[in-house]
Amino acid sequence: MSSHDVTRLLHLAATGDPNAANELLPLVYERLRAVANGYFRGRADQTLQPTALVHEAFLRLVAQEEGAIKDREHFSAVAATAMRQILADRARRRGAQKRGGDRERIALEDVQAADPKESDDADLVALHEALEKLEAIDPRRAKVIELRFLGGLSVEATARHLNVSERTVEADWRAARAWLKTQLGAS
Where are the alpha helices (DSSP H) in the chain? Predict the structure, then answer.
């Protein structure tokens, strides 16, 4: 997928061009599907299918304001965020229906990029809420988690996207994971 083509089509879709979204989907579908599959890996209990998540996230992406998505890496980050928000919203609704239920926390000892979770709905909500807290405290570290963990970007791509050094990304990655581990391990 050419970054220029994607950016151009996103701009056209944001201005209301109906053909742009049709041209864009085939260019980004595999990338969106890979991110969605990461969310569903090992989760047989999920009623939402990766394809439905991709389509819902895609609709959110093409509804972005013109110029809101800068490049391919930014697209991956926005897509990962959209999917996380969709899943967290669904999990909240399901949790409300179950009147809260037991919530388990996510253990991040062995987190690998682009392998988001093997967890239940409560884990999705907990991760989403923890990332929102981290974003309020340290937006760059939250963005590093979003890009690496949820978007599946490499250290190099994350550094380019954030306009910082790879060492900074690695330090932020370690610190943010430790902070999240503490937050998600708290009762």
Answer: 3-14, 18-40, 50-62, 72-97, 121-137, 139-145, 155-162, 166-185
More confident site: 174 or 83: 174
In angstroms, rounded to a whole number, what is the distance separating the alpha carbons of residues 169 and 175? 10
Average pLDDT over all residues of the chain: 76
Q: In sequence order, which residues have a C-beta less than 8 Å from that of residue 84 and are 6 or more positions away? A: 39, 124, 127, 128, 131, 146, 150
Among 183, 18, 51, CA closest to 108: 183
Q: What tens digit of pLDDT does each residue of 126-177 get? A: 888 888 899 999 999 998 988 887 777 889 988 988 899 999 999 999 999 9
Query: Which tokens is 167 given?
Result: 């060492």
First-to-last CA distance in the chain?
43
Q: How far apart are alpha carbons 133 and 182 in whole angstroms?
A: 12
- CA atoms of 158 and 166, how far apart (whole Å): 8
Neighbours of 171 (CB within 10 A): 14
